[in-house]
Design goal:
The complex is a heterodimer of chains A (97) and B (706). Chain A is an alpha+beta fold and 97 residues long. Helices cover 35% and strands 29% of the residues of chain A. Chain A contains three helices and five strands; from the N terminus they run αβαβββαβ. A five-stranded antiparallel beta sheet of chain A has the order 4-3-2-1-5. The relative contact order of chain A is 0.22. Among the domains of chain B are: 8-168, P-loop containing nucleotide triphosphate hydrolases (Rossmann fold); 183-238, no CATH class; 283-431 and 445-479, no CATH class. Chain B is built from 31 helices and twelve strands. Chain B has 706 residues and is α/β, with parallel strands linked by helices. In chain B, helix 21 (453-479) crosses helix 29 (650-662). In chain B, 60% of the residues lie in helices and 8% in strands. The chains are: A alpha+beta (97), B alpha/beta (706). Strand 4 of chain A pairs antiparallel with strand 12 of chain B, so a sheet runs across the interface.
């Protein structure tokens, strides 16, 4: 009984630990319609240059508007206008939350 | 006394900033389309008159977001702007910026100012700015940037006089750059400035940053740039991100100072509401396909009336020339070569005009970006891009403007695949061929009560062409392996009511380009064809009349019947006939004889020639050429000597339909692919592939049906 209990707690703890360790900074592709976040940085240098030119700058708020019918591309609001980008591109924009 | 050189002013701005509206407002109908020297990017330019009556040349450059180019047509902008001392270089630059989204426009402006060209900022959409409750301190903005700033409303033409005044008054380049180049790069930059005599730091810095955009330099100068770059281990693109951040931080500070009231973008909400419907899972696609249906309907139903009129007009003109001019080879060349050739070009004008009316309305309203958004995921599976939808759609009218429309695709692989498969879409030139063959082999009956069989066959052909395009794209996606990355970072512009005059200008521009570009080739080919069909080896053609008279003495033919027989005899013994006969062994497996062979050869230049050739071969007098029924009945009566049955059996008919659907029978398309891909590799591969596809499919169809 006790043993199962400890295992259970341990398992729970380990599970949480894993979750903490695996957890990566959230990115735009994981946002839901209506969510707002602040751009923290980029994980892809090549794309970051294009994204910054288009007004996606670190520290700027970004709002997730909607997805295309097949879930990809997505539409976000940033720097006062609507920008569409593919899911894999959205995944390179990390956000603070 | 020398005539002072006309001043050139370049128009630069973000896409959707209202650049073409401003260009149209400034130049009106005094526009001309040409090419930038040495490259294939279309150059729009026009004249505008200033208050004192003098004229300026305005050059419209492709829309860009930054001086660092992403696609082919963007590169031309940096090439033009970096090449300071060429005679083609603009003396001044007008940067047009969307004032409702000033930040991004100022990024481009700051780069252009730093290159060292005299610059004027035109703040567009001031009406929307006012509605959004923003207000800018224009004077402060001008002072901080060190350049003239003019608020305008390009759609309504407000503020143009002030803008012209600003252009007319002397503008000098700003002395102090907005962005100072990095300390690490100062050494190579000053070295380069010294050896090439470049005016300012940022321009030299751009020389180092953009090795692909320096085609205007001589070989030796390019070598110097490469050397400096190597010696200092300068990697292009290394500092680009940091530069953007620095420029934006300057812009943010600037905007904080000059913005008098904070932004309220709630007016944009209506755009979001429209998007809820237009990008909806069901309604989005339903509306898009409904729209496609409407465009098809317009191209094929509405265009028929003017097309028939043009057809009649040119055949009348041809006949009239025969009557008025003295008989001889020159009259014959004019009446049977040049005039029908011209008719063959002009007849497509209604369809192309209608298609571009729709495309330009969709683009002006902001809907086209949503189509790209909706279709991207589907198209990507086939190695295409959401932006491939526009060329594929245009391909239904004509492959030539369609292939030119692929320039907006940034990715080389996706663009090449789109160019490669677009000619498989059934263009309007195939329509006359389809119409006559379907009428010949498909019964005019209703299936299931309301579907017209002939209509179904036609729709089936369009569908087959589309599927072949997608299938070929998928195969190419597997074959071409490149490491270039594909991306789709695209603005979804706010919905707007289209500006009708812009739609009009687009129609005029595209139609003109088609008539001139395709016209040249079609014209040349129709003259060559005329020669091939009018002359032949030996003196058989000269004695045609006597020979035919001797042969048909016993037949008691009417005058018309005799002329028809002579025409047919002439064609058989002309060079075209000789080539047709030589081709016969190769096309016999498809069920064709040498007469169809002649049609295949003549159609190589342009497929719509098929009907005319058929008319000539089956000895229909020129008087009846536009009467399809007559051609049809003659073709129906044609007997296959081997079987004793009709020549055009369903097997032969379907085989021909499939052949014409897939074969690359269009010189103009080959020419435009050559131009757009910059070499013979792709047009030749395309020709080879499509001919093989056509041959094999036609063979299979013939074997299955017979």
């Amino acid at each position: 009984m006790l043993r199962t209990g400890t295992t259970y707690i341990f398992a729970l703890f380990k599970f949480n630990l894993n979750k903490i360790m695996v957890q990566h900074p959230r990115n735009v592709s994981e946002m839901r319609p209506g969510d707002v976040g602040i751009i923290a940085g980029f994980t892809d240098e090549y794309l970051s240059v294009k994204l910054m030119e288009m007004g996606c700058l670190p520290g700027i708020p970004v709002r997730f508007n909607f997805r295309a019918p097949f879930g990809d591309p997505v539409c976000i609001s940033v720097s006062g206008y609507e920008l569409s980008l593919r899911l894999e591109e959205a995944a390179t924009i990390s956000i603070l939350n | 006394m020398t005539i002072p050189r006309r001043q050139k002013v370049a128009l630069v701005g973000n896409p959707n900033s209202g650049k073409s509206s401003l260009f149209n407002q400034l130049t009106g109908l005094k526009q001309k389309i040409g090419n930038f020297p040495g490259v294939t990017v279309e150059k729009r330019s026009g004249l505008t008159s200033l208050a004192d009556g003098s004229k300026l040349e305005i050059i419209d450059l492709p829309g860009i977001y930054s001086i660092y180019p992403r696609s082919l047509d963007e590169r031309i902008v940096s090439e033009i702007l970096l090449n300071h001392h060429a005679p083609t270089t603009p003396e001044k630059v007008v940067v047009i910026a969307d004032a409702t989204n000033l930040k991004r426009g100022l990024l481009l402006l700051s780069q252009i100012v730093d290159i060292g060209l005299p610059t004027i900022l035109a703040l567009n959409m001031m009406d929307l700015v006012a509605r959004a409750g923003i207000s800018y301190d224009i004077k402060a903005l001008s002072r901080k940037l060190g350049i003239p700033v003019v608020p305008i409303n390009a759609r309504m033409g407000i503020g143009l006089d002030e803008l012209k005044k600003a252009i007319a008054s002397p503008v000098s380049a700003t002395a102090k750059p907005i962005f100072d180049i990095w300390d690490e790069t100062k050494a190579p930059v000053s070295e380069l400035r010294e050896s090439l005599g470049i005016d300012n730091d940022y321009e030299a810095y751009q020389f180092l940053e953009q090795p692909q955009s320096l085609k205007f330099l001589s070989k030796k100068e390019q070598q110097i740039v490469d050397e400096v770059r190597n010696r200092h281990q300068f990697f292009p693109g290394k500092f680009q991100g940091a530069e953007t951040i620095q420029r934006y931080s300057f812009i943010q500070d600037l905007l904080n100072e000059v913005t008098l009231k904070q932004t309220d973008f709630s007016w944009k909400n209506y755009s979001r509401k429209i998007d809820k419907v237009l990008t909806h899972k069901f309604w989005g696609y339903a509306l898009f396909f409904g729209l496609l249906f409407l465009i098809f309907q317009a191209i094929f139903a509405w265009a028929t009336v003017p097309m028939d009129m043009i057809d009649v007009l040119f055949s009348d003109l041809s006949r009239y020339l025969h009557v008025v001019l003295p008989e001889g080879p020159l009259t014959s060349l004019l009446a049977e070569g040049i005039v029908p050739g011209m008719g063959g070009i002009i007849i497509f004008v209604p369809q192309i005009a209608i298609l571009f009316a729709f495309i330009s309305i969709l683009e002006e309203s902001g809907y086209m970006a949503r189509v790209v958004f909706l279709m991207d995921k589907l198209m990507r599976r086939f190695g295409l891009n959401g932006k491939s939808v526009v060329p594929l759609m245009s391909g239904v009218a004509c492959a030539i403007p369609a292939i030119m429309a692929t320039r907006t695709i940034d990715n080389w692989k996706e663009r090449t695949i789109t160019i490669f498969v677009t000619p498989l879409m059934s263009c309007s030139a195939r329509l006359p061929v389809f119409t006559i063959l379907i009428a010949l082999i498909v019964p005019d009956q209703k299936a299931l009560g309301f579907f017209n069989l002939q209509g179904l066959a036609l729709m089936g052909l369009y569908l087959l062409g589309f599927l072949a395009a997608l299938g070929s794209a998928w195969v190419m996606k597997q074959i071409i392996r490149v490491r270039e990355r594909s991306f789709l970072i695209m603005e979804l512009p706010t919905y707007r009511v289209p500006r009708w005059s812009n739609v009009g200008y687009t129609i005029v521009e595209k139609t003109k380009a088609f008539v001139l570009e395709a016209g040249k080739v079609i014209m040349a080919i129709s003259i060559i064809l005329w020669v091939l069909a009018s002359y032949g080896p030996g003196d058989k053609l000269a004695n045609a009349r006597e020979t035919v008279l001797a042969e048909s003495e016993s037949l008691r033919l009417t005058e018309q019947g005799l002329e028809d027989r002579i025409a047919a005899y002439k064609l058989e013994n002309s060079y075209a006939g000789v080539i047709g006969k030589a081709l016969e062994p190769a096309i016999r497996p498809l069920g064709y004889d040498w007469k169809i062979g002649i049609a295949l050869i003549t159609s190589f230049a342009a497929r719509e020639v098929f009907v005319g050739t058929m008319a000539t071969i089956y000895s229909i007098g020129s008087a009846d050429i536009d009467d399809d029924a007559t051609i049809k009945s003659r073709m129906k009566e044609e007997v296959n000597p081997d079987t004793g049955g009709p020549r055009f059996t369903p097997a032969v008919g379907f085989s021909l339909l499939v052949f014409y659907l897939f074969a690359m029978q269009c010189m103009s398309t080959i020419a435009v692919v050559y131009r757009e891909t910059g070499g013979w590799k792709w047009p030749l591969l395309q020709l080879l592939y499509m001919t093989a596809l056509a041959y094999v499919s036609a063979w299979v169809v013939y074997q299955v049906f017979s």
